[in-house]
Design a protein that fits this description.
Layout (H helix, E strand, L loop, with lengths): L8 E6 L2 E6 L11 H14 L5 E6 L4 E3 L12 H19 L4 E6 L2 E3 L1 H7 L3 E5 L3 E3 L13 H9 L1 H9 L4 E2 H7 L4 E3 L4 H12 L4 H32 L4 H11 L10
Parallel strand pairs: 2-3, 3-5, 4-6, 5-7, 6-8, 7-10
Antiparallel strand pairs: 1-2, 8-9
Helix pairs in contact: 1-2, 2-3, 2-8, 4-5, 4-8
Length: 262
């Protein structure tokens, strides 16, 4: 029996490694079914002492994940925004706290919440054709699942601002150069490389790895814990603005938004 409650998050166990596949066609988006499923999966893997590493990738050959399904935010409902912000936070923070080594095999577009789930992992392997962005402000939203906090920690404030404030989409080579990903591989190779790295990690003492990871994260987590809460608060606050509704609906209607700055 699968440990995942949803077919949108598939799990395969290979020795000491769990392969988690985001499978929500056509763009592997996150929604109110897949986010709790990811949280439940990681909790189950944490409870299984035979699992030492986790690899997450996207189904298909175009998208790692395109992030949130924007249809969820078209009505501008702040209560729904608060719910989704909480679900994103719980899922990705549970992934970040996974006791073993977590590796994102980025096999295509990683946008918005799709990049944020990769940021919640310990290591990122990107295929050469991958593109990465946090385009939420383009549609009147903001990254609410760790993007403003973890991206700045990894690549520095300047590049975080270029990507978040200027909607700069970067390719895999740039991502490697600025420290967003640790390795770039040829098309179709990310999963194999990630699995080999996971197997390498599994040769380490899992208790030592868990303690080392806790110590590596300790300074960072003390710095960003308030920021993670602040992300979700500001995300919900946006739903009292005209621009939020205009941005999301303009995207869904395939037109340019007309910003009112209110």
């Amino acid at each position: 029996m699968s440990i995942s409650p949803s077919p949108k998050v598939r799990v395969e166990i290979d020795g000491h490694t769990a392969l988690v596949t985001i499978d929500n066609p056509a763009a592997n988006t996150w929604d109110s079914e897949s986010l709790p499923a990811l949280k439940q999966v990681v909790e189950a893997l944490n409870a299984d002492r035979s699992i030492f590493a986790l690899v997450i990738t996207g189904s298909g050959d175009k998208f790692f994940s395109a992030g949130a399904d924007l249809k969820l935010f078209a009505d501008g409902d702040p209560e729904n925004a608060a719910l989704m912000g909480r679900l994103f936070g719980e899922a990705f923070e549970t992934l970040s706290d996974f006791r073993g080594v977590s590796i994102a095999a980025i096999n295509g577009f990683a946008m918005g919440g799709g990049l944020e789930v990769a940021l919640a992992c310990d290591i990122r392997i990107a295929e050469v054709q991958a593109k990465m962005a946090l385009p939420e402000a383009k549609v009147g939203l903001l990254p609410c699942a760790g993007g403003t906090q973890r991206l700045a920690w990894l690549v520095g404030e300047g590049w975080a601002k270029r990507m978040i404030l200027c909607n700069e989409r970067i390719d895999a080579a740039t991502a490697e150069r600025i420290g967003l990903v640790e390795q770039v591989v040829e098309t179709g190779q990310a999963l194999d490389v990630a699995r080999k790295l996971a197997a390498q990690a599994a040769q380490q003492s899992p208790t030592s790895v868990a303690m080392c990871k806790e110590l590596i994260h300790s300074a960072r987590d003390k710095a960003i814990v308030d920021g993670l809460v602040g992300e979700r608060d500001k995300f919900v606050e946006l739903f009292s603005t005209e621009d939020q509704r205009e941005g999301v609906n303009a995207f869904l209607e395939k037109r340019e938004p007309e910003w009112k700055n209110r």
